[in-house]
Amino acid sequence: MIGRQFDIEASYTFEDLGGRTKVNLISVVTPKSFMMKLMFLVVGWLGETGRLQGAPKGTRELEREG
């Protein structure tokens, strides 16, 4: 997807898990303007901080789902 402020490139892969299917999504978002690059930097940093704090809880939830 090509936009005015950023581009998104996405790809899906499908994995057979013996009767179930796992779908993986990989996406790359490329900001175009200076302000969008700055915003992505700040939001990315905040997201990493939150993800690192929430990792143990999220890991436990994933282990239960199996």
What features would you describe in this structure?
With 66 residues, the chain is an alpha+beta fold. The chain has two domains: 1-32, no CATH class; 34-66. Helices cover 48% and strands 33% of the residues. It is built from one helix and two strands. It has one helix at 34-65; strands spanning 6-16, 21-31. It has a two-stranded antiparallel sheet. The longest helix has 32 residues, at 34-65. The mean pLDDT is 79.
What gap, in angstroms, lies between the N and C termini?
Answer: 33 Å
> What's the order of the H and E elements?
EEH
Helix/strand/pairing class, anyone? alpha+beta
Average of per-residue pLDDT values: 79
How many domains? The number is: 2
- Low-confidence segments, given as residue ranges, are none
User: What is the subunit organization of this protein?
Assistant: single chain
Instruction: Please give the count of helices.
Output: 1
How many beta-strand segments? 2
* SS strand fraction: 25-35%
Cα radius of gyration in angstroms: 16 Å
Strand arrangement across the biggest beta sheet? 1-2
| Helicity level | 40-55%
- Tell me the major beta sheet: 2 strands, antiparallel
What is the global morphology? flat
